[in-house]
Amino acid sequence: MAKLGCALDLGTSGFRGQAIDLDAGGKILSTAITTRHPLPGANVIDHLHFALEVGLEFASEIVVNAANQVIDHLQVDKDQIIKLAICGNPIQLSLFQEIEIRDLAYAGKRKLESLGVVPPKRDAQIVKAEQIRGLDLPPAADILIPPAVRHEIGADALAMMIQTGMLESDKIVVVTDYGTNNEMALLVNGTVYTGSTAAGPALEGQHIEDGLLALPGAISDLDFEATKNLVRTGFQRVTGADQAIEGTFKTFVLDKEMRARPGDTVHPSSGHRTAKGVAEAVGITGTGVVALISQGFKSKHIRIPRINTPDNMIHLPNGIKFTEKDLLEAG
What we know:
The protein has helices spanning 44-54, 56-72, 90-97, 102-105, 109-115, 155-164, 286-299, 324-330, and strands at residues 4-10, 15-21, 27-33, 81-88, 125-128, 142-145, 173-177, 181-188, 191-198, 218-226, 247-254, 260-266, 273-275, 283-284, 302-303, 306-307, 313-315, 321-323. By secondary structure, the chain is an alpha+beta fold. The protein folds into three domains: 4-148, Domain of unknown function (DUF4445) (Nucleotidyltransferase, domain 5), CATH 3.30.420; 158-198, no CATH class; 202-330, no CATH class. The protein has a six-stranded mixed β-sheet, with helices on both faces. Strands 13-12-11-10-14 form a five-stranded mixed β-sheet. The relative contact order is 0.10.
């Protein structure tokens, strides 16, 4: 019988799981994701507020049920899963474990004492699946739970530091995780400084008109390519310092395996396709928005607070567009 593992990220905007063949050197067998978080709201405060309103037990039941569905969609024999490694910020992991969350909701020692709240330890631990109420895995399967660094810096940020190898570096290093929550870690002379902030749903594409979570079909990156020698291509040439530079935007689109593949290349003022890619775009995700703004500055198609095109929109493949309202939202 093959030995399988499962990696599960409880993200603020959705859950993502992968089935892993432990006998084949960690080969990834399948991936499954949710299109949103199972609890109402677009951020951790919403999720925390919901859990406080309806009760920890009910909120935890929803989270664990969603985790079960992700694992089901991995389409592997669950009886072969011997390990589940789970990751997320302190609120998400606490909801999954069904442990005290009020210490994450209220600031101040006196407030917590008046409520009789005893903050739980959020250290690294390995528990059995049977200890997680409702988890549909073999009872003896190991559940690997990484530690939270602080209330605002969770296991997901720590995993980022470990996975990138920054902790072994002898240089000044910074790593950052852009999501609905944004964590950053800075390593200087052996000391790690951390911080986090609400990066905003714009980075998840949630308040962008043609925005999309990081799903197959999402534009995740793009590059501006200036027209060589400003050869006419049927579009307006550069005639002044304030005009956009003539050229095209080459897009990169997530495929079914969540890999960035070449998408169509288009003229940003019209959406006219100049080269066909191998992946079809259906929307733009957060990293695509960041790349679009960056390349928009480079090409002068964006000059805050305006978009420097005839209709004040940047056109992308398949009718996808980026408007000045989107630019304001991203800002």
